[in-house]
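In response to the reviewer comment on reproducibility (Comment 2.3), we provide here a single inverse folding case reported in full, input and output, so that an independent group could reproduce the run without further information from us. The structure tokens appear first.
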């Protein structure tokens, strides 16, 4: 066994963002770039000698090469075992599931989530800890600090591992165990949901479903679970072949990028139920026949109906949502008499709440929903949760959501993204809004009155860690809000996100077009932040 110690020099740009380190593939292909980051991860950890590391990715371009490098480095650094998905593939929630099931020390997830792939697309790497969740900020900060001074890394000089053959092989002193990528995850799903009842629904002849995997990682999972275990018709899963470049598409499950699904679900004879997932399988979009469910509403509906589902039959202890996510779930929590936590954007902030059993369900407006079954958001889990509710209730998606609004009121909600804004302009814009915050407090703004205006700061209730500058929020006395944030996952320029929300208790006013209902707030946001003037954008690039 030949352990090589390779000299290197630091890269200055290896700061993990909202969800790990994301860069263009060409950046990762620079000599030593990936190796430096991987060694910085290992150098920031203690006690992994002889332990197990889970490794897998969403199958995008550079996935296989990166996995070979990581395995050889893990072996050289003294890990005892690596669990890898067949062909190097694991969805992000499957990595979380496997870390937890096999008591691994941690895992490395290779993905740039919903960002496009291919040689000119993006790549990403993220470290997850033993609870199966993304490393908390203290760990990602340590990794970044290490990356700034790193001067060498260890790697084994050996042949590549065969990632396609299931079973164990030796790599130096480490065992590499190639696992079926789907089995452990599917088995976990069977413990949570009433597969028999869902099977009856899907084979009843009265219910049709379309699942769009967007040529990304969930293809094999969705086929095995929906078409295999649950008996849905062949062809229920479309775009189900994972491709290294996602077929040239943008693997983000929203109304813009999941256009094939939108076409099917908004047609005259649309299926009863439609869903899509993203590049790495942690996001979901839920659609009914000619009906879109906002992710914020989806979280609220799941929370309100959780006890219909076997895995949550005994009730949920609490819920958590990211700050920009609509407050729809807050109303459900209030009615159930459970706590609702508001966290910064990014799944890593839910980990402590889930570990401490303070929250059972969590969600983000960015098409992310999940629970304490793993420590990542989980796209197919959300789809199964909806199917289970639909099977029990025997109602349409639209009826379930509209009844929910009638009970709790409707939170009109939308996010406007301005992608590819010049970074300096974006920072100036945010600074401009920030400077107005002290004077906005208590003041009238348009026909609204400002109740609070601040830069969101979060103190973790478990470890008391403080995360500052997590988005600027302007809340009004009637519960409406506008929120400004800069994306932490983009790889080029800056993306400004504007989140807008208003609350309508009156059921006779629940059928207004969302953009129309929010128009006064959208206009106020532009007035405060001067978005059009400063960015030169007349329109957002994406509206969700
Ligand atoms: C985006 C979403 C955020 C999500 C993250 C990872 O981050 O807004 O909710 O957790 O992707 O999927 P952002 O680009 O806004 O920093
Ligand atoms: Zn994702």
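Designed residues, in position order:
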């Amino acid at each position: 066994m030949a352990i090589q110690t390779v000299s290197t020099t630091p890269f200055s740009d290896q700061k993990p963002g909202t969800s790990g380190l994301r860069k263009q593939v060409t950046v990762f292909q620079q000599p030593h770039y990936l190796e430096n980051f991987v060694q910085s991860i290992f150098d920031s950890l203690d006690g992994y000698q002889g332990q197990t590391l889970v490794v897998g990715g969403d199958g995008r371009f550079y996935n296989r090469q990166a996995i070979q490098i990581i395995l050889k480095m893990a072996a050289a650094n003294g890990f005892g075992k690596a669990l890898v998905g067949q062909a190097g593939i694991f969805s992000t929630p499957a990595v979380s599931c496997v870390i937890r099931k096999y008591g691994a020390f941690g895992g490395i997830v290779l993905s740039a989530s919903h960002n496009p792939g291919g040689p000119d697309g993006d790549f990403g790497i993220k470290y997850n800890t033993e609870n199966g969740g993304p490393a908390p900020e203290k760990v990602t900060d340590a990794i970044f600090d290490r990356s700034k001074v790193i001067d060498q890394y260890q790697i084994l000089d050996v042949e590549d591992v065969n990632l396609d053959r299931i079973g164990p092989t030796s790599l130096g002193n480490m065992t590499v165990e190639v696992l079926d990528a789907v089995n452990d995850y599917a088995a976990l799903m069977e413990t949570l949901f009433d597969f028999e009842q869902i099977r009856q629904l899907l084979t009843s002849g009265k219910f049709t479903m379309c699942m769009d995997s967007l040529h990304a990682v969930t293809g094999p999972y969705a086929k095995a679970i929906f078409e295999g275990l649950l008996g849905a018709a062949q062809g229920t899963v479309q775009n189900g072949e994972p491709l290294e470049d996602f077929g040239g598409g943008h693997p983000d499950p929203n109304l813009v990028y999941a256009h094939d699904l939108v076409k099917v679900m908004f047609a005259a004879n649309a299926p009863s139920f439609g869903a899509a997932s993203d590049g790495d399988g942690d996001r979901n979009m839920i659609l009914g026949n000619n009906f879109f469910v906002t992710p914020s509403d989806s979280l609220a509906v799941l929370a309100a109906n959780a006890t219909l589902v076997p895995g949550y039959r005994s009730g949920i202890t609490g819920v958590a949502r990211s700050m920009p996510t609509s407050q729809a779930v807050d109303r459900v929590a209030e009615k159930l008499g459970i706590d609702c936590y508001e966290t910064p954007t990014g799944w890593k902030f839910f980990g402590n709440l889930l570990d401490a059993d303070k929250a059972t369900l969590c969600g983000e407006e960015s098409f992310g929903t999940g629970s304490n079954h793993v420590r990542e958001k989980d796209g197919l889990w959300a789809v199964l949760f909806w199917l289970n509710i639909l099977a029990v209730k025997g109602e349409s998606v639209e009826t379930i959501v509209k009844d929910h609004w009638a009970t709790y009121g409707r939170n009109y909600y939308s996010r406007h993204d301005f992608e590819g804004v010049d970074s300096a302009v974006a920072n100036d814009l945010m600074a401009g809004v920030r400077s107005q915050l002290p004077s906005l407090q208590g003041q009238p703004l348009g026909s609204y009155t400002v109740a609070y205006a601040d830069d969101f700061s979060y103190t973790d209730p478990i470890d008391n860690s403080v995360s500052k500058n997590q988005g600027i929020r302007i809340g009004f006395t009637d519960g409406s809000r506008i929120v400004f944030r800069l994306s932490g996952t983009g790889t080029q320029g800056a993306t400004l996100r504007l989140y807008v929300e208003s609350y309508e208790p009156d059921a006779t006013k629940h059928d207004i077009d969302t953009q129309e209902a929010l128009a006064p707030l959208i206009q106020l946001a532009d007035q405060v932040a001067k978005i059009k003037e400063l960015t030169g954008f007349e329109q957002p690039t994406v509206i969700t």
